[in-house]
Amino acid sequence: MSATTPLRIVAVSAGLSQPSSTRLLADRLAAATRERLAAEQDRDVEVHVVEVRDLAVDIAHHLLSGFPSAALREAIDAVTEADGLISVTPVFTASYSGLFKSFFDLIDNTALTGKPVVIAATGGTARHSLVLEHALRPLFAYLRAVTVPTSVYAASEDWGSSGDEYTEGLPSRIRRAGGELASAVLGHTVSGASRAPGLDDGEDAVVPFEQHLADLRLG
Fold it and tell me: DSSP code of 10?
């Protein structure tokens, strides 16, 4: 890739309402990633948002016919060609939404190999925050993407909250996740991205992100 080619960050938002807290979270994660990328290198950064709700009919037709519309093909290409991906879903029945899953069902299971991804979700209560670990992270592991260590869950009460002495507030988590995605896009080591202790290493030895990507591509 040319040093003058813009870096492409794509955010997939599966919110259904308008306005949507899911889209708001996607926009804030994209802004945090763009800010960090702009601070660490000289290339332009392009952000593109895929609103899955606008593709719902096209997704259904594709599942039935096997042929994507032009708009759906463009969205899939944007996701597979992105340098970094942000994926945000509302929580439905303690998992990702059916529309979110249907969209990613249309992406070849090798098309995201090695691609850095931030996973995020929104819901009415903090009780559903584990959806990130038991649903989204396994989904992107199957797609062979590399999820950054920090995932972001935003419950209704998180909006406008600055956290307290025991927990990080939502803005802090967004900045940290965006920073990790930016580091991954630039090929820097992301703390916690992959741990593989050696004989002379402590339990917290971290594999460089570049090696983690190489391992995925070879596996």
Answer: E
Encoding tokens for residue 19?
Answer: 């306005």
Rounded to an integer, what distance in angstroms lies between the CA atom of residue 164 and that of residue 151?
19
Name 185's Cβ contacts closer than 8 Å, sequence gap at least 6: 7, 9, 33, 37, 83, 84, 116
Question: Do 185 and 116 meet the contact criterion of CB atoms below 8 Å apart?
Answer: yes
User: How many angstroms separate the CA atoms of 50 and 29, rounded?
Assistant: 14
- Model pTM greater than 0.85? no
Tokens of 29: 């994660």
Grouped pLDDT means (10 residues each) for the chain, 219 residues: 82 92 96 96 95 97 94 97 97 94 96 97 90 96 96 88 65 95 86 37 40 46
**Cβ–Cβ under 8 Å, residues 30 and 13:** no
Q: Residue type for 98, please?
A: G
Beta strands at 45-51 and 7-13: parallel, antiparallel or unpaired: parallel
- What's the rounded Cα separation, in Å, for the pair 169 and 90? 19
* Token output for 178: 């965006």
Locus of tokens 């909006």 = 159
Cβ contact 86:27 at 8 Å: no
Partners of 206 in the beta sheet? 195
Decide the pairing of beta strands 84-92 and 95-96: antiparallel
Q: 31 by DSSP, 3-state: which?
A: helix
Residue 63: which of 101, 9, 113, 109 has the closest Cα?
A: 101
